[in-house]
Amino acid sequence: MATLQETSASYTIPVTSYETALCILPPLEKCEYVDSLRELYDKAYGKWPAHINLIYPFVAPEQLPQAQQQIQAQIQRNLDPNTKRHITLDNSGLFRQRNNSTAILQESRDSSDGSLETLRSLALRALGHTPTKHNFHLTVGQTEDNSMASLEFLISKARLLPALDFEIGSLAILIRERTGQHNVNQMRLWGSISGLSPTTELAAPLTEYWLKGFCSPVDEDQGDDDEDEGSALAPTFSRNVQSGKTFKFDRPSGLWTLAERLETSVSRPTSLTISSYNCLVDSEYPPARDRDPLLISTLLSESAKADVLVLQEMSDEFLSSLLNEANIQNQYPFASHGPPSQANIGPLPSLRNVVVLSKWPFRWELVPFHRRHKGAVVAVFDSLTPGGSLVVAGVHLTCGLTDGSVAAKKVQVQNLLNHLNNRYSNSSWVIAGDFNLATSTYTIENALKSKSITTQTQTTLSAIESQLSGDNIVDAWSITRDSQLKEVAGHDADELFEGEEGATFDPRNNLLAAATSGTSQNRPQRYDRILVRSQDILHVDGFDMFGLPIDSNGTSVVPSDHYGVRASLNISMPVKKLSLDHRQLLDNLGVEFKPVPHLTTLDLETTLHQSNMFLTEEEKTRRGLAFELLKKVVLNSQQTSSDTTPSPEIPLVLVTVGSFALNVDTSSSDIDCLCIGSISSKTFFKLVRQRLQKAESQGIRILRKVEASTGTMLELSVNGVPMDLQYCPASRVVERWSEFDSLAESDPIFNLSILSLRKLKPYRDLLYLKRTVPDLVTFGLAYRAVKLWAVQRGIYSSKFGFLGGVHITLMLSWVYKRVSHIDGTFEPRSVNASDLVATFFHYYANYNWAGDMVFDAFFHKQRPRYHRTAREPMVVLGFHAPNSNIAHTSTLPGLMTLTKEFNTASSQLMDPSMTWQKFFGEPELNELNGMGPGEKLFLQNYKSYVSIDIQFWGRTLARGKSLVGWIESRCLSLIVDIHKAFPGFEVRLWPARFTDNSFNDIDGGKDYHGCYLIGLRRNTDNNLALGNKDERQAAKQSLEKVVDRFLAQLRTDEKNYDASTCWVNASLVTQQHVQTQGLRPDDREWGDYAMEMEPDSDDEEEPAEFEDDGDEPRIPIRYKPNKSSTPVSATKLRPASDVLNRLRWDPNLDPADYIIGYEDRFLGAKETGLEKWKTEQTDEEFIPQHRILYFRKKFNDEGDGRGETVWERATRMDKVFGSGAGSGA
C-alpha cells in the first residue's frame, strides 16, 4: 500500500463553500422514526435528507469533479474494501444556540469504532488539509426556544428513537439548488464516493428521496392552534396522505410487533361499539403521570369498553403505560401506534396525538391537515361489514373560538370529508373524536357581543355543522337523545342553554375542564361526538358517556377534562333495491337451502384443522415475509445495484390475488402476485428478471418463465414459498391507485386493452367478492371444506378440466350470496358453514350444465352475453369484463365425473348419521407411500387404464417441468378423443402423477419417471354392451388406434419432445398391471431445482420498436418457396384471414388440428399452432397476417406423418374454399 504522503492531494482545494457538502446518508428504511420527527421539528426537512456531515462547508461547485476524484483515489488506496464500517447512533444530545437549541443523534463512546473520524481524515487529506476534530451528528430538530420545557420536550422525543444502526455504503456529495419555487433552496445529489463496502455485497444506490414530498412551509397566519408543541421555525410539512403501520400484541414474546399480514377473514359481527376519549395532556414538561391509573381504569370500565377505541391527546408516556397494561392488550390487541417505551419503536410525532386501538386488525393512514400537528387517523377495517370496508376516522380539531381557529376547523373537516368521499365513497363511516366545536348558543352569542368573533365566523360554525350532517351522516347522540332518561350529573335542564345538552366538556362540574377552559363563561360544550354514515348497514342502537365525575373522600375526581363517549351500532345486510327485471332474474335463479342440523360448524372446523387445511402461525409469518421480500425487490424499494447513478423511478404496484388474498390458502398453495405498472410487458419482465436474479442471495429463485396465451408469467420460489408473478400494463390505474378500490365500474380508467383488462380482472373480482360475501369466515370454512373434498376425490385440477380454486370461489360465492336472501322477500338469512357446504353440493348436483351457466346475478343485473361454443360443456363466469369462461378446460367426461361426485357428496351429507369426520375420512388413513383413499379407489375401480409414461434424464429439471407441463396440456385431447370413440364409457383421468420406487431415486434423484393414468369402464346406466369376442377385439383395436395417434402427435412435436433427453409412451394396461407396478403419488418438488437460464426472449427486440446502436444482427436466409411449374389460375385467392376464420370457427373443423406457417423477419419460415395465433394487435405475440405462408394439417390421416397443406400463398392453392388454383395441381 502506498504511504499517506504518496497519496496526498496534488494541490489543495479550499473547503469553504456552503453550496456543497460531503456527508453520509443512512438508508431510507432506517429513517422512518427520525424523519417523522424531522418533518415536524427540523427546518431543513424537505431540503436536506437525514444526514451526518463529514465536511461542510465543502468545495466550490466547479471543483466537485476534481475533489471527487482525489477523495475516491485516497479511499481506494488507504481503506480495505473488505472491511465493514458500521455506525450506531444511540445517543441523543442538544446543541445550544442563542435563541433555541438543536436536538441531535450521535455515536456513544462505546459504540463508535472510529469510522467517521477515519473517513473525514482521509477526505481532508485528499483535498490537502490537515484533519481537525469534528462533532459528528444527525439533526432531529430545533426547539422553539431555550426554556426548560421546550428543551426537555424535544430531547425526550430524541431519546425515544431506536438506535440508528447501519453500514456505510458510500459517501454522498450534495449540492445546493436554488429555485424560485416557494422561494426556497434544496440540496440535490451531485454524486457519490464508493468503495466503502465489501466487494461481495452490492451497495444500495443513493436516491433523492427527500425531495419527493417537498412542499411549501406551513402558513402560520391561519389563526390559533396548538402550535406550542412545534418549532417557530416552521419546517416544511407534507400534506400528502401517509400510510401507517399497524401494531399487534404478540403474546408469546410479550411485545408489540408490526402486523405484517392483516387477517381479512375476521368473523363478521352483528354489532359494533366505538368509544372516543380525550385523555388530556395538561403539561408539556415534565409530563403529569398522576392521572394515568385513573385513566386506565376508566378505559377498562364496562361503560367504556368497546370494539374500537379512538383516543385523543395521547402522549408518549401515557401510551406506553396504556399498551403495557395486560387488560388493554387483551381487549385491544391491535393499535395504530406501538408503545414508545419499547426499544424498537419510536416516539409519537407530536405532544398531543390521535391513536386508534381495536380488537380487530385494521390498516390506517394519516390525513394531514394544514397545521403541522393536526391530522385525522383513518382506520380501515376490510370486510368487517357487508358491502365493503368500515372506515373509522379519529379526529382532534383545532381548539378555540376565534376567527382563525373556526376557519381552520372548517378546512380540516372539509379535507377529511373530501378524503373519505374520494377514497371510500361506497363504505360505511364512523367519525369520532374531539371536534372542539362550540355548541353553547350562550357562549357563541357572548363571543359576538365581545367581538371575539365576527358574524362571518358564526356563519362558518353553522356551515361546519351542515358539513357534518350532510351526505347521510348522523350524530349518534342525536339519534338516541330522546331515549336517554338521565342527564349528565349536576345539571338541571332548566339551567342549560341551547346546545349544552349532552355536553362532554363541562367546566361547571369538571375541575380539569374548568382549568383548561378558554372562555370566561365556563358553559358546557358538546365537543366530543361520534358521527355515523350508515350506508344502510350501520344502525345506531345506543349512546353512553363515561369518565364522569366520581366522589372520592368528599372530593370530585375526574380522569380528564373531557367525558368519553361510546356508540353502540347494529350491523345488518343492506336491503337490496331491485328492479323488476333484476328481481325476476334472481327469482329464476333460486338456490334451495339445505340445512343439515346434524352437522356442526365446530366439528367441520376441527376436521379441517386435522386435515391441515389451515396455516400454522409460523407458516403465515413465513408466507407474509416472503411476499414482503418479493414486493421490496420487484418495486426496488431497497435497490441492490452497485451503480450509484439514480435511475428514474418506474411507478409499480404489487398486489396478491387468489387464495392468499382471500386468506384461504394452505401450505401447498402458491401465492399469486400481480404487478401493475406504466411500462410495457417486455420491459417489465426484462427489468424484474434482473432484479430477481440480483436478489438470489436473499432466497429468491426464478424457477420457470411461462409463455401462455394470456401473457408471460414467472414461477418463483421465495425462501421456499412458491409464487407466480404476472404483469398488467395500465399506467392510469397506477396513477389513481389510492382510489382504485372505490372506483365505479363505468369509470373511464377501465378503457384498457383486452389484455390489460384480463390481467386486472382477478384483482377487481377479488375486491368485489370481499365487499359482497355475507361473511368471509363462513365462506372461508366452506371453501376449505369443498377444496379438501375435491382433492380427496381427485377432481381438484383446473388444467385437467376439473375444479380449481377460482371455480370453487365463484361457484360457492354465488350459492352463498343467493341462499343468504330468502326467496320472494329477499330478506337476509343467516347461513352457517355446514349448511352452506350441503347447499353447495345439492345445488350443483342438480344443475343444468348443458343449458345454464354459473354467474353472479347480484353483479350481472341481466344474463351475461356470452357466446358458448360446443367445446364448453361447463361455463363459470367471473364478474368484471372481459367475460371469460373459468371452466374453459372442462370436458364432457370431466363434467360427468363432477356431477357424479356432487351427487354422491350431497347424498352423504343428507344422511342424518353422517359426521364431518366420516365424510372426509380419518386423516391418518393415508398410507406411508402417500396413497390416500381416493387414489386407492381409483386404482381399484377400473379394469383398464391408459398409461401415459414419462421418463426424463435431461440436464436441468426446468426442462423436465416444461416437458411434464406440455404433456399435461395434451392429455385433455386424448380424453376427448376416447369419449368421442366410446361415448358409452366412463373416461376419468386422475389429476396427479404416479411414480414407482425403482426409477425415482436413480442418479441422485435427477432422473425422473412418472405416469398419468386414465381409467376406463362402461357407464353403469349404459345398457349397450359389447357382445361377442370379435366386437370386443374391434373395440380394443379402435381404442389402441386413438392412443397410438395421440402418442404419434407427442413424439413428432420437435419443439417440445427431444428424444435425446426424454421418452414418452402411451399404452393400454390392465388393472393387474397397474397394481403390480407399486405405484405411489409423485411428490417430486420441481421447484427444488434452479431454472436453466436461457437467453431472454424479451431481449430479442424488433428494430421497428427499438433502435439499437450496436451491430446489426445477421439476418438468416429467408424462406423462399419453390416456384410452381403449374400455371397459376387467374382466379383471386381467398385471403389468409378468411381461411384463419374458417378453420377457427367452423364447427366441423378442429383448430387444434392445423398449423400456420409464417415468415419471421429474422429467422425465416417458422410454424405455430393455429390455436396460438394472435389476432389482437396489442398482443405481444401479434404477427401481421400478410406474413402467413401456408396452412397445413398437423398429421396425415394415419396420424403418423406431416399433414397436407390446405392453403398456400405462393402456389395459390386453396383446399378450404377452392379459390385461386383450387386444390392445386
Give an overview of the whole structure:
The protein has 1225 residues and is α+β, with helices and mostly antiparallel strands. Helix content is 29%, strand content 21%. The longest helix is centred in the C-terminal third of the chain and has 25 residues, at 957-981. It is globular and about 110 Å long. The N and C termini lie far apart (84 Å).
Write a brief caption for the model.
Residues 601-728 form the Poly(A) polymerase nucleotidyltransferase domain. This protein is α+β, with helices and mostly antiparallel strands and 1225 residues long.
Which characteristics define this entry?
1225 residues, alpha+beta, Cyclic Phosphodiesterase, Chain: A, Poly(a)-polymerase, middle domain, eight-stranded mixed beta sheet, seven-stranded mixed beta sheet, 41 strands
Distance between the termini: 84 Å
The structural domain count equals: 5
Roughly what fraction of the amino acids lie in strands? 15-25%
- Approximate shape: globular
CATH class assignment of the largest domain: Mainly Alpha
CATH topology of the largest domain: Poly(a)-polymerase, middle domain
Neighbour order of strands in the largest sheet: 11-10-14-15-13-12-25-22
CATH architecture of the largest domain: Orthogonal Bundle
Count of strand segments: 41
- Roughly how much helix do the residues carry, as a percent range? 25-40%
Main sheet: strands, sense, barrel: 8 strands, mixed
Subcellular location: Nucleus
Pfam families: 2_5_RNA_ligase2, Exo_endo_phos, MJ1316, PAP_central, PAP_NTPase
Keywords: ATP-binding, Magnesium, Metal-binding, mRNA processing, Nucleotide-binding, Nucleus, Transferase
InterPro entries: Endo/exonu/phosph_ase_sf (IPR036691), Endo/exonuclease/phosphatase (IPR005135), MJ1316 (IPR040459), NT_sf (IPR043519), NuclTrfase_I-like_C (IPR011068), PolA_pol_cen_dom (IPR007012), PolA_pol_NTPase (IPR048840)
